[in-house]
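Anyone up for a design puzzle?
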């Protein structure tokens, strides 16, 4: 759609579908997060699904408890797809990645689940 408001190209949309299907298959095979399955440590995105479900049920306190950055997940996926195709989104993608890492390290420390204790 030229000149319209569509933010995804067909290539972007196909990549998003591929990511979604891959996550579904991985969750089905491993019963959840692959990082947690193999390393017994939460990954930076652990809790995002529960947070989104809580948000849909209007339980905002629980949603932010499960993952405080759950509302950035769609933005993260959008930028991930766009970074693969265009350079202009790299700065924003890097900022969100840094946010996820900072929250991840805080949650590991706070919940006393450090890998090397």
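Challenge accepted. My sequence:
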């Amino acid at each position: 759609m030229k000149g319209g408001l569509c933010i995804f190209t067909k290539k972007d949309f196909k990549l998003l579908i591929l990511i979604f299907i891959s996550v579904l298959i991985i969750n089905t095979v491993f019963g959840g997060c692959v990082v947690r399955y193999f390393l017994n440590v939460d990954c930076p995105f652990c809790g995002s699904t529960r947070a989104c479900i809580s948000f849909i049920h209007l339980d905002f306190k629980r949603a932010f408890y499960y993952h405080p950055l759950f509302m950035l997940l769609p933005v993260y996926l959008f930028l991930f797809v766009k970074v693969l195709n265009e350079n202009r989104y790299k700065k924003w993608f890097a900022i969100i990645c840094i946010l996820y890492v900072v929250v991840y390290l805080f949650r590991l420390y706070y919940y006393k689940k450090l890998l090397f204790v």
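A detail worth pointing out: The chain has six helices and no strands.
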